Task: structure prediction
Amino acid sequence: MQSKLNSFIPRGLGAQLALAFSLLSVVLTLALVAVVERRAVDQIKIRIGNSLADLAAQTSDKLERGMFERYREVGLIASRTILTNPDYNLNQRRQALARVQQSYAYYEWLGVTDLDGKVLVASNGLLEGADVSKRPWFADGLRGGHVGDVHEALLLDKLLPPQEGNAPRRFVDVAFPFADDEGRVRGVLGAHLSWNWARDVERSVVGSADREGTVQTLILSSTGRVLLGPKELMDTTLSLESFRNATPTRRGDYTVERWPDGKEYLVGYQKGSGYASYPGLGWVVLVRQPVDLAWQPLVEMRRHALISGLLLALLFSLVGVALARRITRPLKQLAASAGELRDGAEVAIASGGPYEEVAALSRSLNSLVFDLAERRRQLVQLNGTLEQLVESRTVELRRALETVQGSEMRIRAIVDTAQDAFIGVDLKGCISEWNPQAEQMLGWRRAEALGRRLDDLNLADPLRGSDSDALPQLLASNRQGALDRRVERVVIDRHGAEIPVEMSTSLTGHGESTMLSIFLRDITERKRIDRAKNEFVGTVSHELRTPLTSIRASLALLADGAMGELSPDVMELIDICYNNCIRLNRLVDDMLDIQKIEAGMMSFIPVTQPVLPLAREAIRTMQGMATANNVSLVLDTGADAQEAVASIDYDRMTQVMTNLLSNAIKVAPSGSAVILHVIAQANGARLSVADRGPGIRPELRERVFQPFVQIAQKDGGKPQGGTGLGLAICKRIVEEHGGTISIADAPGGGTVFHVNLPREVSVAPAKTTVTME
Result:
């Protein structure tokens, strides 16, 4: 292949220079034309895209202003006294409505209703006497004003003359209440505005742009339903990038995207935001044009650019040929002298003519001829050694390069396919890595983020640098302890939206290549599920409490003989129901307690006081359950028990102790004892509950304090009945008191729960609302 290519290259220096000049001229000219063309193409594309964006913005603005005029006009009509003044009869009111309808042809229907939704009077007498109380415009209008989204006519479509092409009528409803002189609401004024008005607005904007044949305008509802557009797309719901990107805060924009018909379109978009007092319905205007038709002006421009470039290249080539011949003339003379020398003739090299460089070359060649043979011998000898060394170094370099490239590709693949957003920051605080997940979460594209400082993106305080330009100061301070650990933070995306994330940071690399690696995981869904769970548990618990209280009271009355003496079988069933009702009530209370604690809404009022009375009260409360289970309760008070003092909320800590005693009674063998120890400590008090049950395996002891967890005992038995919330509630209450709760093996077998309480603690008051980062 190389030999065939060489056969087309001229062997003469002059011809090669001429060819080089020609090729260089062609390449430079075409490159220059390409650069200029690319810049012009980009500018033309931007101008064409902006023109569609302007059309969308103008259409949206006209829609919003038009709706504002109708919204304001109906409101003004509703304030006219002709609607409530008894001096005006129905015919006069009908004529007044007809005049309004004639003033604006798109009012398909105007009507006045009473407070019950009956149409009293209407333009052209249509629907008079009809009941419209079920229509949304009447109900919302009665409450202060209504503007409804586009919908098909229900009753009027059959009463009004058919439209052009028998197309179904579509209305936009506007309604306001009207009141008498004393300010009392007397009814509702409703207006049905023909949706054909929007088609005329679209034609007035797009038609003025002289693009009727190629440009199409679509109006979408806030949910993406096509309200106005091509017939094949009417009433379909579109999920497009342009629709999702359309915001009322941005003044029009455009994009290139593929539509459901498989074609690519240049799309300008704008979302309406209302106008003045008109609140707006969130309509999105899309103006589309097929890409091949939109870029049509570029084809003609490229053709002219190509022709101009070829003509310039031809002109430069002719000039290059002439210059090459002039330059190579003395070189040809020099080559002739060298040829004679090669043939063995003892001649001097020609001086080279008028060129100083060629003359210097001639002198150098004359001096080199004499030692050429010696140099050639030395070069041959060195060439063998050099080739071996170069080959060896080349192999080593190739292997090292392949290893580095492979490692870089693996790292890049791992970062790009990671589920978490990844941000790399160099020593200067500038972003050096930004994976696709970071683009999706934070809104900035990789090209936009790379090289910028974290401060410029305004993400969040934990991700910003310090005031200096050097990252080491930020790393030394380890702000909020976020390095080498996973913490929850809130970051802000490109559009200012807050996103709760789980963030982990670490240092990678050495020296100048040191980089701060930041991984962000979006936990919005997890937060939402947690909130939904808490709300569900709270709602269900509250809803269950009322019927359970009624059932419990009713069963108590039956057991006390309110309905007369009952048979033993019935009494047994009532006792079973009553006991299970109490158990359900306790379950509901536990679920409410755990929900309040997790939401930060349970109140604690700690008071420094002796804990011995609390222990005695807990023993008295659980004595009945212990007797029923043939278990004895023992209060072990040492010599210093009277001095056991702690800062506690008496009711909450009583709840903890009764729960621990209840659990101990359930697992204690029949005939054994459950012991409650009260011990004074230097900085508070300790309460311990010990039983002689089978015990809990050490590896499972931390799990028993988790909500809804029930664990079998050491002997492999089944878990005791209950909700699995009691110990979780105990742990939360004790921790709110600044104390600790732990599990250990009781002396002689069984389990002992230790509750350590401080003498002084400051408990914040319960929150009335729940806030989450």
Q: What stands out?
A: The CA atoms of residues 552 and 579 lie 9 Å apart. Residues 465-470, 477-482, 714-718, 763-773 have pLDDT under 50 and may be disordered.
